[in-house]
Amino acid sequence: MILDSFKLEGKVAIVTGASTGLGQGMAIALAEAGAHIVGISSGTMGETQQKVDRLGRRFLAIRADLTSTEPVEHIIDEATEHFGRIDILVNNAGIIRREDALNFSEKDWDDVIDINLKTVFFFSQAAARKFIEQGSGGKIINIASMLSFQGGIRVPSYTASKSAVTGITKALANEWAKFNINVNAIAPGYMITNNTAPLRADESRSSAILERIPAGRWGRPEDMKGAVVFLASGAADYVNGFTLAVDGGWLAR
């Protein structure tokens, strides 16, 4: 039956940025589909763990600062030691810095590129090596953005990083499909998250954004559930290198 292809029983998923927002929502979705969760965050993940526990799935919390690649190998090793394997990686952790391009600092550029792009690549590399070692394939899901397709305003490093995420998603899919590793991305639209708090607080910007969204509302973390479960599941075994927009129709306008 087709619905069986979406089940994730016995799978182990690493979700970065799992403490709140989209990361928490996707971790819960994967657990609802049957997966055990390795949550990664620089903060506490008590709420996420409680929600996963209530679903009868196991949750391993690993505190890590992903502004550098240093923790990546340790996370892969700890997750594998705890669960015996890994099957899914969701590269969700990211940051944004807002400033006019004329005044944008090198530090703000490097900070955003390091976590949004460099860590995403090397985490994917480490996970792929583990998938190949296991001989069972795997799923990598990168979190892109509307700014993977558009230029944005006052967020040059974020736009650069998210545009690059779609590029490396394609590049890695090309190389790793032969190992039964699917690499895809999700591009959330304008979601209710910490990153969009300044936009939502600006009445004129918020109104302009809502006017363009055919669905007529900001997205919510639960809107990501179907996309992440699909791309993490056997139902997406022949989907490679694609960036799926979950945007309420923003890009269609």
Keywords:
253 residues, alpha/beta, Rossmann fold, 7-stranded parallel beta sheet, 8 helices
Folded structure, characterized:
With 253 residues, the protein is of the alpha/beta class. The chain has one domain: Rossmann fold (3-Layer(aba) Sandwich), CATH 3.40.50.720. Helix content is 42%, strand content 15%. Helix 1 crosses helix 8 and helix 4 runs parallel beside helix 5. The chain is globular and about 50 Å long. It is built from eight helices and seven strands, in the order βαβαβαβαβαβαααβ. Strands 3-2-1-4-5-6-7 form a seven-stranded parallel beta sheet, with helices on both faces.
Name the average pLDDT. Answer: 97
Strand content: 15-25%
The CATH architecture designation is 3-Layer(aba) Sandwich
Please, what is the CATH homologous superfamily? NAD(P)-binding Rossmann-like Domain
Oligomer: single chain
